[in-house]
Structures are given as structure tokens and as C-alpha cells.
Amino acid sequence: MNKIAELIRRATQSINQTKIAFDSGSVDLEKMLQRHEEEKNKDESTKIHEKWLRKIKRSEIATKLDVKPAKKEKQFPGSQFEGNLQKLIEKYKTIDEVFKHMTLGQLQKYSVIEENKIVNIKSGNVAYDGNTGEIFE
User: Fold this and answer.
1) Is the terminal CB of the chain with fewer CB neighbours within 10 Å at N or C?
2) Spatial separation of the C-alpha atoms in residues 113 and 24, rounded to whole Å
3) 3-class DSSP state of 126
4) Angle 126-91-95 (CA atoms, 0-180°, nearest 5)?
């Protein structure tokens, strides 16, 4: 019983507030009726679209968004494959620079045994001779 009495009290309050608004002239009845007629003539997708537009306009977040471009990752030597041994030697010339730019897989395959020679670890053959500039692979 208490719930019903509370609902009746709230309904009465809202009716009284509406009457006060109409009597004071703060609510224009003709504009409300005109909007209601316009809403009846719109399809559902238009109603949903306009609802979201109103919501976006009301939100302060939409005006304060500061969109920044994504940061580019630094490219470290050896983090990407730049080519086979021949291309690395043509590009970087020195054996030290070639080894800086080799990938992990290439580092597992090649090593420097003598000062200017790169050797294939699996076969044991010389892959590059820095003295003569010959590439054997």
C-alpha cells in the first residue's frame, strides 16, 4: 500500500510542476506539439542518429578530445631482416657494421674466426673474405 501511495504522490507532484510551467509561460505548448508531430514522421534510424548527435553535442568530452598520432617505434639494428649476407656487405662495407645489422638467425649461422673472414658455423666454410672482398655464399 505504501508503494502505491508513494507513486500517486510523485505523479501528483509532477503534474503540479507541469501546470506551473505552463501557467508561467516557460513551456511553449505549440513548439512541443510541433516537435511531437515531427518525431512521429521520422523513421527509427533517423531518430537514433539524431539522438546520438544530441548526445555528442552535449558532452564536453567531445570538444576536449586531443587526438595525437601514434608514436613510431625505434628501429634498432638487427631488429628487422635487411637482406642476405651479400646485401649486408654491399650496404655496410665493414664486418663490424654487418654484424650489428644481422638478425638473430643470421648471427647463429655466421661468426668471425679470423680478423676479416666470416665463416658459416654449420659447414665451417668461409662465407666472406674481407681481404679479397669475395663472397662465397
Assistant:
1) N
2) 98
3) strand
4) 40
CA-closest candidate to residue 130, choices 89, 100, 70: 89
Give the E-state strand segments of 31-125 in sequence order: 110-112, 117-120
Do the Cβ atoms of 106 and 82 come closer than 8 Å?
A: no
Task: Compute the distance between CA of residue 137 and CA of residue 43 in angstroms, rounded to an integer.
Answer: 71
Strand partners for 129: 117, 134
Q: Going residue by residue through the chain, which has 137 residues, state the pLDDT in tens, using 9 for 90 and above.
A: 577 777 777 777 777 666 555 555 555 667 777 877 887 888 888 888 888 888 877 776 656 666 677 777 777 877 788 888 888 888 888 888 888 888 888 888 888 877 788 888 888 888 888 878 788 77
Which amino acid would we find at residue 106? Q
CA 110 to chain centre: 39
Retrieve residue 49's grid coordinates: 542518429
- Per the document, the length of the chain is 137
Q: How far apart are CA 118 and CA 85, in angstroms?
A: 10
